[in-house]
Inverse folding.
């Protein structure tokens, strides 16, 4: 079973119910820790430019499979006009390992060569309090993967009461 309630309900749903054993294994995602100010501070230590700014968060490996190129290109296309008109728009935080790879360097170059280079941030790998601070502080989480079996970061974001934007391949 994936939760205790499911285990208990099985006893009243299935007749006769005589399993050899019962085991609750969960889905591999723990409840997030309750928000603490130290989480926000830990995230801002990794990404100080985002202080008091709204942002969309990508938190995963920087890899072709994850569609980060689509995300950056789409972000640039959608928000370039907003920047020219001084409209408020969310910034983009791309966090995770892989920035030093050829693909990661291409993504950073794509961002740096755009008009929105001051709106796209790469804090690197976020863990523990900095990760949770990023989730709790974002306006939305995005995962535009080309293929994804089960996005744990999607569930973590939802558990922090944040909307998620995913491709139909997740």
């Amino acid at each position: 079973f994936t939760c205790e309630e499911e285990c208990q309900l099985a006893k009243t749903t299935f007749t006769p119910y005589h399993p050899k054993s019962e085991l609750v294994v969960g889905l591999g995602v723990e409840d997030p820790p309750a928000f603490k100010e130290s989480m926000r501070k830990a995230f801002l230590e990794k990404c100080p430019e985002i202080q008091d700014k709204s942002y969309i968060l990508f938190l995963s490996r920087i890899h072709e499979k994850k569609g980060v190129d689509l995300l950056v290109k789409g972000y640039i296309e959608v928000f370039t006009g907003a920047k020219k008109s001084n409209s408020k728009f969310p910034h983009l935080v791309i966090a995770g390992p892989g920035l030093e790879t050829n693909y990661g360097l291409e993504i950073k170059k794509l961002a740096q060569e755009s008009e929105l280079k001051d709106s796209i941030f790469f804090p690197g790998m976020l863990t523990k309090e900095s990760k949770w601070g990023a989730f709790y502080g974002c306006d939305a989480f995005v995962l535009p993967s080309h293929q994804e079996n089960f996005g744990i970061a999607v569930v973590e974001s939802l558990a922090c009461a944040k909307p998620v934007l995913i491709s139909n391949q997740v």
User: Anything to note?
Assistant: The beta strands are 55-59, 91-95, 120-124, 140-143, 164-166.
